[in-house]
Amino acid sequence: MYRTHSCGELNITNVSQEVTLSGWIQKSRDLGGMTFIDLRDRYGITQLVFNMDTNADLCQKARKLGREFVLKISGIVTERESKNAKISTGDIEIIVSEIKILNASKTPPFTIENDTDGGEEIRMKYRYLDLRRNPLKENLMLRNKVGFEVRSYLHGIDFMEVETPYLIKSTPEGARDFVVPSRMNPGTFYALPQSPQTFKQLLMISGYDRYYQLVKCFRDEDLRADRQPEFTQIDCEMSFVEQDDILNTFEGMTKHLFKKIKNVEMSGFPRIKYDDAMRLYGSDKPDIRFGMQFVELNELAQNKGFNVFDSAELVIGICAPGLATYSRKQLDKLVKFVQKPQIGAKGLVYVKYNEDGSFKSSVDKFYSQEDLKAWADKMEAKPGDLMLVLSGDTAHTQNALNVLRLEMGDRLELRDKNTYAPLWVIDFPLLEWNEDSKRYHAMHHPFTAPKPEEMHLLESEPGKVHANAYDLVINGVEIGGGSIRIFDKDIQAQMFKHLGFTDEEAQEQFGFLMEAFEYGAPPHGGIALGFDRLVAMFGGSDSIRDYIAFPKNNSGQDIMISSPSAIADAQLEELFLEVKNIQ
Amino acid sequence: MYRTHSCGELNITNVSQEVTLSGWIQKSRDLGGMTFIDLRDRYGITQLVFNMDTNADLCQKARKLGREFVLKISGIVTERESKNAKISTGDIEIIVSEIKILNASKTPPFTIENDTDGGEEIRMKYRYLDLRRNPLKENLMLRNKVGFEVRSYLHGIDFMEVETPYLIKSTPEGARDFVVPSRMNPGTFYALPQSPQTFKQLLMISGYDRYYQLVKCFRDEDLRADRQPEFTQIDCEMSFVEQDDILNTFEGMTKHLFKKIKNVEMSGFPRIKYDDAMRLYGSDKPDIRFGMQFVELNELAQNKGFNVFDSAELVIGICAPGLATYSRKQLDKLVKFVQKPQIGAKGLVYVKYNEDGSFKSSVDKFYSQEDLKAWADKMEAKPGDLMLVLSGDTAHTQNALNVLRLEMGDRLELRDKNTYAPLWVIDFPLLEWNEDSKRYHAMHHPFTAPKPEEMHLLESEPGKVHANAYDLVINGVEIGGGSIRIFDKDIQAQMFKHLGFTDEEAQEQFGFLMEAFEYGAPPHGGIALGFDRLVAMFGGSDSIRDYIAFPKNNSGQDIMISSPSAIADAQLEELFLEVKNIQ
Questions:
Q1: Distance CA A239, CA A201 (A)
Q2: Has the ipTM of the complex gone over 0.90?
Q3: What pTM, to 2 d.p., does this model score?
């Protein structure tokens, strides 16, 4: 028997008991006649004591043990003289009578502490050691807890978890597929799912009514810091529902999670139309922990002789409360900030609303104090505030002011990690025009239903049609999205046509779904939540990688196991494949 | 709003309520002035009534609707005249006032009934329609329930679910991998996991103590009826444990499942050593719902002039109670049965123990009544029983008698579907000799630890070493297996050597694991249960395919979505691959 207790459970009530513990040496300290070892396991840390006076041999032995050695010890639980209130076992220590070294350890390449001295690369190579550190362990325990609560909630309201296949069929729509050559069917390939979209729709056609799955999905995209080639989705679908049914159901789930994970009671989530989100925040994932909404100034600011504004499609501003005290230097820096290539504004107009009621702006040449007072009134600015105004074409200007707004929110400390502001963004456009391919792309995906009341525009003005599509956004992060689906073969065929599919391509790729629509498809809709991102949000972090046990780096590699790697020629031959043309 | 209630919830307490239901037409019947429609959803069936006298238009409309049409109806709940006790809604019906056709349906290619007229192939092509049938729906609901209970139990005893990666590294040990070409790393491949074995061991080295995961695994094997290229495993690992800790933990889980799923209380599971299982049942997965254990007859049966027995390595028999009445014809059929190529016995000796105490056998020429009485005594046969004896080399004879024993068990109706007889088979051999490759293969896998007390034989007589490896067997089906693992680098290296790895190969493929062993690996062990098979067992079936939503056929194809399929040349080019040499 390796242990009678874990390293996290002994306390003052166990004093005088003989116990056996197993774990790792977190650290040891020699204090003259005494040696102390902190023994660690998943559940906590227990202090071990060795005394030169009473057991010199054992104490000598203990002094030779290094960090991360694995021990089994037996001894008596004793009350500590100097207690440690920070840990649950802090009132006691073990007077050790017996040590068994279960395994030795080389000195780890970085310290196994909350703050480690190891760089990113070495910690990825020794991920199994990095996972010993408390912050990562807590992240994965959080992930386990969130996953369990998601399942409990959905199970409780009659959702069935159904596993859909991983070896499916490659389709060119959407992101790039990972493919899997089939040995039994030479020259053909499976694809790994980007999502179980078509399968969950088929399950609705099968009458399964409420489906969910926590499921790995795969996208062969060039990776950014916060993307992984494999990621986990909470994938859901419901039948006989309208948009409100889905929003209410998953608002319920999200509230349940906040209660269980954060002990936070949430009230109803605001619902903002996509067009309004763009107008007020310049983003389809607004951070509404703070206000600072966009105010349109076209009417007030144009035709006063300032050419930059006069020639702009849109003039919009935000009001940063209390920042009229910004110095010239601070303002110049702000101008530089919005001119960075990734933001791309040409310039920034500022207006200080001084405490004495006067205005000082970078465009005093063109605007009188009365003009600026009118801006201030429209922006509901008060003396002491700073107005920041951008102009240009709508899309770029909204985008730039969105970034500036978030920056000002950070500076004003309005984006508190422990405040949560969820909302639904609804009524997304059905299609978006893509300049590169000169065709419409599905804003959500090709199975999203147009709003019935706008169906008549689908032929004539497809770009104007909205969809019953929605995103769940929390603190400026898109946590999930979904839509009411098409369940009529003809509408689906029409959608494929708008997306540039020929009839043959539509048939070849999605014929099975369109055929299924002919056998009694029910109205249905669903949602998919990014599980990695949801957990990271609960953990208060932007980095999903810290919430995945074995993530890949930005080149899609797992450097711990050296994957991907070359395979044997015999394997390639069995698959009828040849590698070629590598530069 | 599509419905106020499901089709499974209305009863006598709802009479007089106005309700709205949505669902599929299961069937309709015109009875003179009345039309009845059974409306179906996931939750049940509700009878709708239309009356020519009171609402002729609506009744006419209802008569035109076909099977599997999707309807939304409103009406009043009414008590039925002739009740149907078989369904929960059988006391009521709905007098319909309004119908909306949500979707039409073509006539399905097979009937959506418990017993369908559709063949295997057509039901696979229209799997989404087959899934509408009650038996398949109940299978998937059972699967959902078993999965949820597995998670609840393991969560309750501090197991953490940790997701391990799907894009890993190909290793030649074990079955054939599915591989995934990496576009970002030209000429290299990921592999899909055959199991998360090395990752779960790394998680133990990370100190995670108790890990589990319900996880898809992949094997590119030639498929048999009951194999799938992707399958689901309940994968578990524990630290600081001995074999007993694991057996007790998963015995606890299995009992929990039997209680929750079948409402069956189980007592302790017998534990049988592998060597004993082979000796007594000729199988490492014995069906112990019935006795009929093997009895060795070498001493009694040899050296009596019967050359077949004299030259045999093993003479073994079973006693089939009460079958002494078998006719010559029945016995001849039994001989033919064991001579089938897949069983491969040369012949079968039978001995009838007649009710009058006399014996009649196929070898009366060689054995006296006293000889046969001695056999009967050893086999604990009683008058009226039939003894069946096989001989030959040990392995083939045990195997043939195992098949015969199961056949006799079936004939005597001793293998009741609703009786459950779980057991642990323990102490498996560590290695097995493979005649084709002329080397040892790991009986379980290369990470299984030799029994410490037999470690000294590992160099000299590796074939004699046993392992702390164990299988969970229920009703003759292997539900899961596992082992205590090696956690010492040198022993792991020695194992790889016995398995024919060069040092370089071991380093190349499993260097990361052996290196991890040097940083404080704890003693650990685990188990993996076949989830598909476990669910099928609870469902009383041998066919895992009926418990998988979208299974593949024996050629690894999903004929519903036509996968696998050719991919675009551009996709191949991006992956630096060429398909070639297909005959």
A1: 9
A2: yes
A3: 0.95
